[in-house]
Predict the structure.
Amino acid sequence: MGQHKGGVYLVDLMEYISMALFLLSTPVSWFAIKSGYTESVVAVANSYAFSLGMIGLYVAPFLFGKSWAARLHRATSNWVIFSAITQVVFQVPHNLFPAWIDSKKGEIWQWPFVGYAVCDSRWKQFNPIPAEVWLINANDASLGLLVVFTYFIAKVWPSDRREVAHVIAVVFRDATLWRETLEYMMDHHRSDYKHTLRATDGLVGHDHGDLSLVAGGITGTPHEHLGINLHVHAKTCLWLVNILWLIAPVLTIEWAIHRYERRSVRGEWI
């Protein structure tokens, strides 16, 4: 019994730490920029913290639990909640208010897009937004809003039909996101990561000022003694930020099956 409680506490602790990384990485990195740290280095650190936080929220529940179904349900619940937050908070305003975001140069409202631009420079283009980015945003945000809507409807007015509608919405969203993410990452790979931050000759950094992101990479004075290959880190972050969108949707199908089986056998939803 004590071992079980200890495992539960460990999972809780890991989730709290992961949630802090997920929620605080962007504002903390913004304050680091304002404190004079190099923008490109901070952006990479931001991407590492954000992605590892989201991965931790998904992985932690699998480490301990009463059953595989319980672990899967907790992990998938975390995935659905925090991926929907990303879609609604990040992708909805990017499509609806690009001119406003573009007017906020040097402010925290633009930083999430500038920060991710080390992984994909197209996300820093606001006027106009590249067509492929607009379509990704429209698809992801619409599906995220659908999942949020069906969740609240099922909670406010509980019924089997509404619970089924929510489960179907999650499975449909994840199936669509899996295909989209696969195509997105393969496009990066086939283009030799041309949209990912590059130094002129690999090593990049500077003592003062910011690096200017452009479509094909960055401009700035190489500073080799810093010893950081930001292109390698930016490419790694690109995969870390998007890897869950390739893994979690596969297990979402099993999550849906477990929910249906529990409803059929016990007459309750988990």
Observations:
- DSSP finds eight helices and two strands in the chain.
